Amino acid sequence: MSILEYNGGCVLAMAGKECVAIASDKRLGVQLTTVAMDANRIFRMHDKLYLGLTGLMTDIQTLDQLFRFKLELYAMRENRLMKPKTFASLVSSTLYSKRFAPYFSEPVIAGLDKDNKPYICSMDLLGCVAEETEFVVAGTCAESLFGTCETFYKKDLEPDELFETVSQALLAALDRDCISGWGAVVHIITKDGVQTKELDGRMD
Protein backbone atom coordinates (compact mmCIF):
# COMPACT_ATOMS: atom_id res chain seq x y z
CA MET A 1 0.00 0.00 0.00
CA SER A 2 1.27 3.48 -0.92
CA ILE A 3 2.02 5.88 1.95
CA LEU A 4 -0.47 8.28 0.28
CA GLU A 5 -3.18 5.64 0.84
CA TYR A 6 -2.22 4.82 4.43
CA ASN A 7 -4.95 7.00 6.01
CA GLY A 8 -7.42 6.84 3.07
CA GLY A 9 -9.54 9.78 2.00
CA CYS A 10 -10.31 11.83 -1.08
CA VAL A 11 -11.03 15.43 -2.15
CA LEU A 12 -13.03 16.78 -5.09
CA ALA A 13 -13.33 20.35 -6.42
CA MET A 14 -15.72 21.46 -9.16
CA ALA A 15 -16.36 24.81 -10.83
CA GLY A 16 -19.77 26.35 -11.46
CA LYS A 17 -21.16 29.71 -12.57
CA GLU A 18 -19.51 32.28 -10.29
CA CYS A 19 -19.22 29.56 -7.65
CA VAL A 20 -16.99 26.65 -6.81
CA ALA A 21 -17.41 23.54 -4.65
CA ILE A 22 -14.87 21.53 -2.69
CA ALA A 23 -15.78 18.29 -0.91
CA SER A 24 -14.14 15.42 0.94
CA ASP A 25 -15.01 12.29 2.88
CA LYS A 26 -14.69 12.09 6.68
CA ARG A 27 -13.01 8.74 7.27
CA LEU A 28 -9.62 8.51 8.98
CA GLY A 29 -8.11 5.06 8.86
CA VAL A 30 -4.91 3.16 9.43
CA GLN A 31 -4.90 1.07 6.28
CA LEU A 32 -8.12 -0.99 6.50
CA THR A 33 -8.86 -0.09 10.15
CA THR A 34 -11.22 2.85 10.72
CA VAL A 35 -9.93 5.15 13.48
CA ALA A 36 -12.27 8.16 13.27
CA MET A 37 -15.24 9.43 11.28
CA ASP A 38 -14.71 13.19 11.63
CA ALA A 39 -11.44 13.73 9.77
CA ASN A 40 -10.98 17.21 8.34
CA ARG A 41 -9.26 17.41 4.94
CA ILE A 42 -10.59 20.80 3.79
CA PHE A 43 -9.23 23.99 5.31
CA ARG A 44 -10.44 27.59 5.02
CA MET A 45 -7.69 29.97 3.95
CA HIS A 46 -10.07 32.93 3.60
CA ASP A 47 -13.71 33.46 2.59
CA LYS A 48 -13.03 32.86 -1.11
CA LEU A 49 -10.22 30.32 -0.88
CA TYR A 50 -10.22 26.76 0.42
CA LEU A 51 -7.49 24.12 0.46
CA GLY A 52 -8.10 20.36 0.35
CA LEU A 53 -5.34 17.93 1.32
CA THR A 54 -5.23 14.16 0.84
CA GLY A 55 -2.55 11.73 1.93
CA LEU A 56 -0.83 11.17 5.27
CA MET A 57 -2.83 12.86 8.02
CA THR A 58 0.22 14.07 9.98
CA ASP A 59 1.52 15.87 6.88
CA ILE A 60 -1.96 17.25 6.17
CA GLN A 61 -2.06 18.91 9.60
CA THR A 62 1.50 20.22 9.21
CA LEU A 63 0.78 21.74 5.79
CA ASP A 64 -2.45 23.34 7.01
CA GLN A 65 -0.58 25.18 9.77
CA LEU A 66 2.29 26.12 7.43
CA PHE A 67 0.07 27.56 4.69
CA ARG A 68 -2.11 29.50 7.14
CA PHE A 69 1.05 30.99 8.65
CA LYS A 70 2.34 32.05 5.20
CA LEU A 71 -1.08 33.40 4.21
CA GLU A 72 -1.32 35.56 7.34
CA LEU A 73 2.20 36.91 6.77
CA TYR A 74 1.19 37.84 3.21
CA ALA A 75 -1.96 39.59 4.44
CA MET A 76 0.06 41.59 6.98
CA ARG A 77 2.70 42.65 4.45
CA GLU A 78 0.43 43.32 1.46
CA ASN A 79 -2.72 44.40 3.35
CA ARG A 80 -4.87 42.31 1.01
CA LEU A 81 -6.06 38.75 0.56
CA MET A 82 -4.11 36.34 -1.59
CA LYS A 83 -5.63 35.39 -4.96
CA PRO A 84 -6.23 31.67 -5.58
CA LYS A 85 -3.69 31.49 -8.42
CA THR A 86 -1.05 33.19 -6.29
CA PHE A 87 -1.81 30.77 -3.46
CA ALA A 88 -1.39 27.84 -5.87
CA SER A 89 2.10 29.14 -6.72
CA LEU A 90 2.89 29.41 -3.01
CA VAL A 91 1.76 25.83 -2.36
CA SER A 92 3.66 24.54 -5.38
CA SER A 93 6.95 26.24 -4.45
CA THR A 94 6.62 25.10 -0.82
CA LEU A 95 6.15 21.47 -1.84
CA TYR A 96 8.95 21.61 -4.45
CA SER A 97 11.37 23.04 -1.88
CA LYS A 98 10.97 19.75 0.04
CA ARG A 99 11.25 17.51 -3.03
CA PHE A 100 14.08 15.38 -1.61
CA ALA A 101 12.08 14.59 1.54
CA PRO A 102 8.52 15.44 0.43
CA TYR A 103 5.33 15.95 2.36
CA PHE A 104 3.11 12.96 1.58
CA SER A 105 0.08 15.01 0.58
CA GLU A 106 -1.63 15.98 -2.68
CA PRO A 107 -3.33 19.42 -2.48
CA VAL A 108 -6.53 20.57 -4.18
CA ILE A 109 -7.19 24.33 -4.31
CA ALA A 110 -10.60 25.92 -4.93
CA GLY A 111 -11.52 29.58 -4.85
CA LEU A 112 -12.93 32.65 -6.53
CA ASP A 113 -10.78 35.47 -7.92
CA LYS A 114 -11.57 39.19 -7.64
CA ASP A 115 -14.03 38.90 -10.57
CA ASN A 116 -15.73 35.87 -8.92
CA LYS A 117 -14.35 33.58 -11.61
CA PRO A 118 -13.79 30.03 -10.31
CA TYR A 119 -10.24 28.76 -9.95
CA ILE A 120 -9.46 25.10 -9.26
CA CYS A 121 -6.26 23.09 -9.45
CA SER A 122 -4.62 19.99 -8.06
CA MET A 123 -0.99 19.02 -7.47
CA ASP A 124 1.16 16.01 -6.82
CA LEU A 125 3.35 15.79 -3.74
CA LEU A 126 6.20 17.63 -5.53
CA GLY A 127 4.02 20.63 -6.39
CA CYS A 128 3.35 20.06 -10.11
CA VAL A 129 0.23 22.19 -10.78
CA ALA A 130 -2.66 20.91 -12.91
CA GLU A 131 -5.14 23.73 -13.50
CA GLU A 132 -8.62 22.83 -14.72
CA THR A 133 -11.84 24.61 -15.68
CA GLU A 134 -14.28 21.80 -14.79
CA PHE A 135 -13.18 19.58 -11.87
CA VAL A 136 -10.11 18.17 -10.11
CA VAL A 137 -9.81 15.13 -7.84
CA ALA A 138 -7.25 13.60 -5.47
CA GLY A 139 -7.07 10.70 -3.08
CA THR A 140 -7.62 6.97 -2.95
CA CYS A 141 -10.76 6.89 -5.10
CA ALA A 142 -9.52 9.36 -7.73
CA GLU A 143 -10.19 6.92 -10.59
CA SER A 144 -13.82 6.45 -9.54
CA LEU A 145 -14.21 10.20 -9.01
CA PHE A 146 -13.02 10.92 -12.55
CA GLY A 147 -15.73 8.62 -13.88
CA THR A 148 -18.57 9.97 -11.77
CA CYS A 149 -17.59 13.62 -12.32
CA GLU A 150 -17.42 13.16 -16.09
CA THR A 151 -20.89 11.62 -15.94
CA PHE A 152 -22.58 14.27 -13.78
CA TYR A 153 -20.71 17.47 -14.66
CA LYS A 154 -22.39 20.23 -16.67
CA LYS A 155 -21.08 23.67 -17.55
CA ASP A 156 -22.13 26.83 -15.64
CA LEU A 157 -23.97 25.12 -12.78
CA GLU A 158 -25.75 27.33 -10.25
CA PRO A 159 -24.78 26.84 -6.55
CA ASP A 160 -27.70 24.50 -5.73
CA GLU A 161 -27.13 22.44 -8.87
CA LEU A 162 -23.40 22.36 -8.16
CA PHE A 163 -24.00 21.03 -4.65
CA GLU A 164 -26.24 18.26 -5.98
CA THR A 165 -23.75 17.32 -8.71
CA VAL A 166 -20.75 17.23 -6.37
CA SER A 167 -22.69 15.26 -3.75
CA GLN A 168 -23.88 12.61 -6.19
CA ALA A 169 -20.46 12.27 -7.81
CA LEU A 170 -18.66 11.97 -4.47
CA LEU A 171 -21.07 9.51 -2.85
CA ALA A 172 -21.13 7.29 -5.95
CA ALA A 173 -17.31 7.15 -5.99
CA LEU A 174 -17.05 6.51 -2.23
CA ASP A 175 -19.25 3.45 -2.59
CA ARG A 176 -16.48 1.91 -4.70
CA ASP A 177 -13.60 2.55 -2.29
CA CYS A 178 -13.21 0.66 0.99
CA ILE A 179 -10.68 3.08 2.57
CA SER A 180 -12.71 6.26 2.05
CA GLY A 181 -16.23 7.26 3.02
CA TRP A 182 -18.24 7.29 6.25
CA GLY A 183 -19.96 10.52 5.24
CA ALA A 184 -18.75 13.64 3.50
CA VAL A 185 -18.66 17.43 3.77
CA VAL A 186 -19.28 19.88 0.91
CA HIS A 187 -18.36 23.59 0.84
CA ILE A 188 -20.00 25.81 -1.80
CA ILE A 189 -18.07 29.07 -2.27
CA THR A 190 -20.02 31.95 -3.83
CA LYS A 191 -19.57 35.73 -4.00
CA ASP A 192 -22.09 36.05 -1.14
CA GLY A 193 -20.38 33.60 1.22
CA VAL A 194 -19.75 29.93 1.89
CA GLN A 195 -22.35 27.23 2.48
CA THR A 196 -21.21 24.06 4.25
CA LYS A 197 -23.31 20.90 4.21
CA GLU A 198 -22.66 17.39 5.49
CA LEU A 199 -23.68 14.21 3.70
CA ASP A 200 -24.53 10.82 5.15
CA GLY A 201 -22.73 7.96 3.45
CA ARG A 202 -22.47 4.21 3.80
CA MET A 203 -21.29 3.14 7.24
CA ASP A 204 -19.90 -0.26 6.33
UniProtKB/TrEMBL annotation:
GO terms for biological process: proteasome-mediated ubiquitin-dependent protein catabolic process. Keywords: Cytoplasm, Nucleus, Proteasome. PROSITE patterns: PROTEASOME_BETA_1, PROTEASOME_BETA_2. GO terms for cellular component: cytoplasm; nucleus; proteasome core complex, beta-subunit complex. Component of the proteasome, a multicatalytic proteinase complex which is characterized by its ability to cleave peptides with Arg, Phe, Tyr, Leu, and Glu adjacent to the leaving group at neutral or slightly basic pH. The proteasome has an ATP-dependent proteolytic activity. Belongs to the peptidase T1B family. PANTHER family: METALLOPROTEASE TLDD, PROTEASOME SUBUNIT BETA TYPE-3. This is Proteasome subunit beta.
